[in-house]
Write a structure and sequence with these properties.
63% of the residues lie in helices and 14% in strands. With 184 residues, it is an alpha+beta fold. It folds into two domains: 106 residues, Peroxidase, domain 1 (Orthogonal Bundle), CATH 1.10.520.20; 70 residues, no CATH class. The longest helix has 21 residues.
Amino acid sequence: MKKDSKSKIASVYALALYEAAEDKKAVARVSEDMASLLAVIREDRDILKYLANPVWDNGGKKEALKEISKKLKLSPETLSCLDIIADNGRFGELELILEEFRHLNYRKNGIIEVEVQSVKALSSAQDKKLKSSLEKMLSGKIVVNYEIRPELLGGLVVKFNSNMIDDSLKGKLNRLELIMKGGQ
């Protein structure tokens, strides 16, 4: 299946799950559950492989979900959402669905997602200062996702909405190279 069709499916399911959580006034709880589940899936890829495997029947997958639900203390609303995904055989898109749910929740609550790339992890003081500056610049609440990228050599790359601020040493060197070659 193509990447864009998978993302469309994920968007449809995420919206349906969000609306179901909204109807039950459990968006905050379901959002926490989805974040926990996403972290578990990213930590142990075998869970997703098992759940997405078409050879295993849905009954076994639902039992596995119940066990995961107990361990993560997921809400009944979250479990019923996951049952719908199981019934429709969409575990191959589960990670995308969970990510899209998170993005949708942020958009609905006016939270701006910011991606920050750096050579190494920022200290807590640097993190606090960066978040404060970004909140002031963007005039709103933010959520920062960090990515370690040693090839940047130094500095930061900050992405939000459709904007990018490249203050990395690699970016500066690339711009200097262009200038020296006679480009803009």
